[in-house]
Design brief:
Layout (H helix, E strand, L loop, with lengths): L6 E2 L14 E4 L9 E3 L12 E7 L3 E8 L6 E4 L3 E4 L14 E4 L9 E4 L7 E9 L1 E7 L7 E6 L5 E6 L9 E4 L6 E8 L8 E8 L11 H8 L15
Antiparallel strand pairs: 1-11, 2-14, 3-16, 4-5, 5-10, 6-7, 8-9, 10-15, 11-14, 11-16, 12-13, 12-15
Amino acid sequence: MRKTLAVAVALAGVASSSAGAQLVRIGPGSFTPGATVITFSEQPLNTDNPVYTFASVPDLGSVTVSFAGAFNGQTVTGGFPSTLTGSPSGPLSLNTSYRTFITTDSDNPTSPVLSGDPTFNGPIVLFFSTPVAAVSLDGGYFNTVGATTITGFDALGNALGSFTNSVLGIETYGFADASGNNVISGLAFYITGDEPAGFAIDNVTFGAASVVQITPEPATMTLFATGLIGVFAAARRRRRA
């Protein structure tokens, strides 16, 4: 069985084409109970490229969250694992010819999860029909530090920030626009190094500024200065066969 790491994704960037956008890393517990959550238990196993529509998200209204393996303008390359190449075309939209699907992970306490294709080794992208101010989610298990890249995009397909996974173990990360503006329209997750067992995602949480405490973590100032997240040493854990 594969061991899934519960790691929520944080994006931090200093360059943005969205006016005033400045993504900061936020810590565990930043979202209030009013935040919207997708657990992937809402639809049957093996559902391809699931779509979730929420009629009344606080301060956002109707929001549809869709998943696929790439954005239009990008290509999935490689075999096992696969990765993303190219930049999204604007406006940001999904390329649903590349598959994601809901599956189980018996070592993940909140299974089911969403996987790319091939299983646990393909890219996953998500798209918000209405831009949001903050997002968190669980991802992993990462066997190698710095081998999986996460990038955020605005509605025009411009990158808002990007980093590689920095730790092993159970961690919670999130990210938000520092001003509370709704500028985050999409996320992309893809393997860019030697990640032998791949990753999946779970528990996607999002909302407007009203459902999140946007207090940057101390590391944020370093992120603004460097434009990247440092890679920290961590003991390697292996999945069970």
